[in-house]
């Protein structure tokens, strides 16, 4: 048996595999249920330019750093950090960056799989015609019956297990026979499927309104809040701070042009977000705006209701949610890799056993989130369910902290020679920008994002009736009366919450920052409760 911490984690056989794997890691549900809403709200094409600028100037350097770190060490992020710490003769406390990233990946995967299970169930619901002739109230009742009904939680657990088995089955076959083969087929196939659905949206949808809302320039809608929304979306949707880029970097072939591939991934992610935004707007809306919808409500209520009006609606709905399943599936495969790689390096266990054990642990941990929507919906600590606390810990603490530690360690603890060696051949201008972004810009920006995330989440818990100690003094230290100025129009409709709490309308901020409760009722059916968009972790998928 290999000695612990010396197991070789694996390697891709083709240089283009890194690109497809990275696209699978970055293209997630946020491209479908968050980006089109944000673009339509914050200036259309101007928001897209802001988002692209945030990607290139802030998050791209961190993506390059994490991937270069893994490629340089040929190990996952824990062993990669260990090797650099020894080379630079720095404190072992820096190892926290690697270990916390593995914890973050594990936790995020645990509830990403829950979302995947909902989409998987919807493939079958659509194919069986459950949405035929359905309106908003019927679609909300279907979602509530799957997710929020305490009497049906075992069926929800079954879908959850089914989805994770699909992930574990591929991962257990190895880096080449499993991960590489699957990603090289599934990711391009998903993009082709998205193009087909986009063509369908053009044919049957309201593509003119989508272009006007998402691509046209609306400077009157641009504000400071638009920059904040672009920063949040750029940081939380690229798999940063979870060891994903490090493990993918360690898998690259010697001929892979890492920095060019990462730039191509960033541009592809933006293109997919635009394409998905146009498609979702054309398919899921019946007016000239999203009317406050995103997340669960947009994808699992509005989308099937609108698609049910099309010819061959059963086939169309099943195809749309098959695309959603494939998106979450590839994301989950990438999230599983750093955890499995760490476990193998730590224990020396064979890959099949490692994948099975980690998969079982993910399933058990995911039950905490799954049951938070039904059996444990009323079990709250500090006003929040277990799912909300997992969301807050990962999004507000672990992921920003890992990003900050990696940036500070790379910028301040490594010698210029070692940092340039790790980065590899690069133009002098790029290397200079990268160095100072890692030293100064990224730590400050990410710290601000993490504080905003945490303060707003805690404040919303207070708004929903929490009597926790932090609610004794209103949390107003960042931006006046509210921690975030991105307020939704007063006439935006409420959506159904998992436990029937009552609160004011939603906020137009990243979903991870939003309130876990809404008015007591659902769209057209006050007797049923469904998960709301505010309960969805923004960065997880």
UniProtKB/TrEMBL annotation:
<keyword id="KW-0813">Transport</keyword>
<feature type="transmembrane region" description="Helical">
    <location>
        <begin position="18"/>
        <end position="39"/>
    </location>
</feature>
<feature type="compositionally biased region" description="Polar residues">
    <location>
        <begin position="514"/>
        <end position="525"/>
    </location>
</feature>
<dbReference type="GO" id="GO:0016020">
    <property type="term" value="C:membrane"/>
</dbReference>
<feature type="transmembrane region" description="Helical">
    <location>
        <begin position="429"/>
        <end position="451"/>
    </location>
</feature>
<protein>
    <submittedName>
        <fullName>Sodium-dependent transporter</fullName>
    </submittedName>
</protein>
<feature type="transmembrane region" description="Helical">
    <location>
        <begin position="183"/>
        <end position="204"/>
    </location>
</feature>
<feature type="transmembrane region" description="Helical">
    <location>
        <begin position="356"/>
        <end position="377"/>
    </location>
</feature>
<dbReference type="InterPro" id="IPR047218">
    <property type="entry name" value="YocR/YhdH-like"/>
</dbReference>
<keyword id="KW-1133">Transmembrane helix</keyword>
<feature type="transmembrane region" description="Helical">
    <location>
        <begin position="100"/>
        <end position="125"/>
    </location>
</feature>
<dbReference type="Pfam" id="PF00209">
    <property type="entry name" value="SNF"/>
</dbReference>
<keyword id="KW-0812">Transmembrane</keyword>
<feature type="transmembrane region" description="Helical">
    <location>
        <begin position="156"/>
        <end position="176"/>
    </location>
</feature>
<feature type="transmembrane region" description="Helical">
    <location>
        <begin position="389"/>
        <end position="409"/>
    </location>
</feature>
<dbReference type="InterPro" id="IPR037272">
    <property type="entry name" value="SNS_sf"/>
</dbReference>
<feature type="transmembrane region" description="Helical">
    <location>
        <begin position="45"/>
        <end position="64"/>
    </location>
</feature>
<feature type="transmembrane region" description="Helical">
    <location>
        <begin position="224"/>
        <end position="249"/>
    </location>
</feature>
<feature type="transmembrane region" description="Helical">
    <location>
        <begin position="261"/>
        <end position="282"/>
    </location>
</feature>
<feature type="region of interest" description="Disordered">
    <location>
        <begin position="480"/>
        <end position="541"/>
    </location>
</feature>
<dbReference type="InterPro" id="IPR000175">
    <property type="entry name" value="Na/ntran_symport"/>
</dbReference>
<keyword id="KW-0472">Membrane</keyword>
<feature type="transmembrane region" description="Helical">
    <location>
        <begin position="315"/>
        <end position="336"/>
    </location>
</feature>
């Amino acid at each position: 048996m290999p000695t612990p911490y010396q197991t070789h984690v694996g390697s891709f056989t083709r240089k283009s595999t890194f690109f497809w794997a990275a696209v699978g890691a970055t293209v997630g549900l946020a491209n479908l249920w968050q980006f089109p809403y944000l673009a339509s709200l914050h200036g259309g094409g101007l928001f897209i330019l802001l988002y692209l600028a945030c990607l290139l100037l802030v998050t791209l350097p961190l993506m390059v750093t994490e991937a270069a770190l893994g490629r340089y060490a040929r190990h996952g992020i824990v062993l990669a950090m260990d090797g650099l710490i020894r080379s630079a003769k720095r404190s072992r406390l820096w190892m926290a960056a690697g270990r916390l990233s593995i914890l973050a990946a594990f936790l995020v995967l645990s509830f990403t799989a829950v979302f995947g299970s909902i989409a998987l169930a919807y493939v079958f619901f659509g194919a069986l015609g459950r949405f035929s002739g359905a309106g908003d109230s019927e679609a909300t009742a279907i979602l509530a019956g799957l997710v929020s009904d305490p009497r049906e939680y075992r069926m929800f657990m079954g879908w959850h297990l089914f989805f994770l088995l699909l992930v574990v089955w591929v991962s257990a076959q190895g880096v080449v026979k499993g991960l590489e083969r699957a990603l090289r087929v599934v990711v391009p196939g998903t993009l082709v499927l998205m193009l087909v659905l986009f063509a369908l949206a053009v044919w049957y949808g309201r593509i003119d309104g989508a272009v006007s809302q998402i691509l046209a320039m609306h400077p009157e809608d641009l504000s400071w809040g638009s920059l904040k929304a672009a920063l949040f979306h750029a940081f939380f949707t690229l798999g940063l701070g979870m060891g994903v880029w490090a493990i993918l970097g360690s898998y690259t072939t010697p001929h892979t042009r890492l920095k060019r591939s990462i730039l191509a991934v960033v541009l592809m992610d933006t293109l997919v977000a635009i394409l998905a935004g146009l498609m979702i707007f054309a398919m899921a809306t019946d007016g000239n705006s999203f009317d406050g919808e995103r997340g669960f409500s947009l994808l699992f209520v509005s989308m099937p209701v609108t698609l049910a009006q099309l010819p061959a609606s059963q086939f169309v709905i099943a195809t749309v949610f098959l695309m959603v399943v494939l998106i979450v599936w590839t994301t989950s495969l990438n999230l599983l890799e750093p955890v499995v790689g760490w476990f193998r390096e730590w224990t020396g266990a064979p890959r099949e056993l490692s994948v099975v054990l980690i998969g079982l642990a993910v399933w058990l941990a995911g039950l905490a989130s799954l049951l938070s929507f039904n059996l444990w919906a009323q079990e709250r600590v500090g006003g929040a369910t277990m799912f909300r606390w997992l969301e807050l810990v990962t999004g507000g603490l672990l992921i920003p902290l890992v990003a900050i530690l990696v940036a500070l360690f790379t910028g301040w603890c490594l010698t210029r020679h070692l940092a340039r060696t790790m980065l590899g051949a690069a133009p002098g201008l790029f290397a200079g920008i990268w160095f100072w972004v890692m030293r100064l810009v990224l730590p400050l920006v990410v710290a601000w994002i993490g504080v905003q995330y945490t303060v707003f989440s805690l404040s919303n818990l207070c708004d929903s009736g929490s009597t926790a100690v932090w609610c004794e003094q209103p949390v107003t230290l960042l931006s006046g009366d509210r921690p975030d100025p991105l307020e939704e129009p007063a006439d935006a409709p409420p959506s159904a919450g998992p436990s029937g709490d009552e609160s004011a309308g939603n906020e137009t901020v990243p979903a991870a920052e939003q309130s876990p409760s809404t008015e007591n009722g659902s769209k057209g059916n006050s007797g049923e409760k469904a998960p709301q968009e505010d309960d969805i972790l923004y960065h997880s998928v």
